[in-house]
Amino acid sequence: MINDILNETKSKMQSTVNVLKDDLQGMRGNRASTSLVDRLRVEYYGQETELRQLANISTPEAMQILIRPYDTSAVSAIERAIQQSDLGINPNVDGSSIRLNMPALTRERRQELVRLVGKRLEEAKVAIRNIRRSANQDLAEFESEKMISEDEKRRGEDEVQKLTDEQIKLIEELGKQKEADLMEV
């Protein structure tokens, strides 16, 4: 029973960290990355669709993203989605493809992105702590229902705390890497 709780807790915590990784990849660093736009939602035939499902996305140059829609009728919808996003980039439509030329990051924009990274890290840490609290509540319920002993509950709580510490350390390392990437000129 305790192992079930631990496995479920570990799985939830890892998925929280994976979501954070995806989120951080989507933040702009020093070079263009397809992850900036691949999850961008585009209204395509009345339905919200991720850009990566509508187009081939590549980086032909270090500071450029090239988007080639599979269906050329989607070009205007993709252009509109990029303009409405918080990327702050104007798309250049050239026939059946869209080019995004990434401007160099200013010092202020870098600092703003670092603050945003800090906010995302804190949200992830809070999510991890909520998962820990939920697991500890499950252990307490099992103990109150006499399914496990007090010692087993305490051992389970210690294991949950170890998992929590590992994941928070991983989150902090991801944050340091991203901040270093953002501040690199």
How would you sum up this structure in a few lines?
The chain is of the alpha+beta class and 185 residues long.
Helix content: 55-70%
Overall CATH class of the largest domain: Mainly Alpha
Portion in beta strands: 15-25%
CATH architecture term of the largest domain: Orthogonal Bundle
CATH homologous superfamily of the largest domain, by name? Ribosome-recycling factor
Structural overview:
There is one protein chain. The longest helix has about 40 residues, at about 105-145. With about 180 residues, this protein is α+β, with helices and mostly antiparallel strands. The strands form 2 sheets. A 4-stranded antiparallel sheet has the order 3-4-6-5. Strand 1 (about 40-45) and strand 2 (about 45-50) form a beta hairpin. It is about 60% helix and about 15% strand. The chain has helices at about 1-25, 50-55, 75-85, 105-145, 150-185, and strands at about 40-45, 45-50, 55-60, 65-70, 90-95, 95-100. The chain has 5 helices and 6 strands. Helix 1 (about 1-25) runs parallel beside helix 5. It has 2 domains: about 1-25 and about 105-185, Orthogonal Bundle (Topoisomerase I, Chain A, domain 4), CATH 1.10.132.20; about 35-100, Gyrase A, domain 2.
